[in-house]
Amino acid sequence: MRMSQKGNLMGVEQEAKDLLSFDLNGVPIRLTVDPSRRLVDIIRTDLNLTGTKISCEIGRCGACMVLVDGKQQNSCLTMAYQCEGKKVETIEGIGTEMIDPVQQAFLEEGGFQCGYCTPGMIVSIKALLNENPKATMDELKDGLTGNLCRCTGYGGIYRVLRRITDHQNK
C-alpha cells in the first residue's frame, strides 16, 4: 500500500486515497480508502456489515470487536490501513456453514437481552478459545473484561461460559 497525503492542487482540496487489501470473512477485499478511516467504519459503511457495532468509540465496550489474524481487536481503535494483508473476521463470518457452538450456547442459555453486545461477546469468546481451547470459566470471564453489557445481562452470559467450559471438560 502506498501512503499518500491530503493535498491542495490549485486551490482544490483533494482527499488522499490508498489501496487497501485484506481478507474479510474469507473473501479478498480491495478498496480505495482514505488512510485516516477506522476499520469499523469501513466494515459498517463501505461493506454494509452491521453486526460489528459502534458504541463507546474509545475501545472500552467491546461492541466493535473483530478478529484480526485470529486475535480480538477493537475495530473502533484500528485504522483500516493496519489491516493491510491481514485476515479480518466479523460476527458475520462466524457460524456461516453451521451455527458456531458459541452462538448455539448464547441461544440455548439466553445469553443476551437487547443483543447489542452479543456480536462483540461472541467474537471475544471465539478469540479467547482460539488462544486457549481449554480456558476455564475464570479465564473466560477475565478475557471478557473489555466487553460491556449495558442491560447487565451477565447472568445469561456467565451461563454461556459455564456451558462452554462444561462442554470442554467432557
Automatic annotation (TrEMBL):
Domain annotation 2Fe-2S ferredoxin-type: ranges: 18-94
Any one GO MF annotation of this record: metal ion binding
Family annotation (PROSITE patterns): 2FE2S_FER_1, 2FE2S_FER_2
Stored SUPFAM superfamilies: 2Fe-2S ferredoxin-like (SSF54292), CO dehydrogenase ISP C-domain like (SSF47741)
Classification via Pfam families: Fer2 (PF00111), Fer2_2 (PF01799)
Pathway terms, separated by semicolons: Alkaloid degradation; nicotine degradation
UniProt-recorded name of the protein: Xanthine dehydrogenase
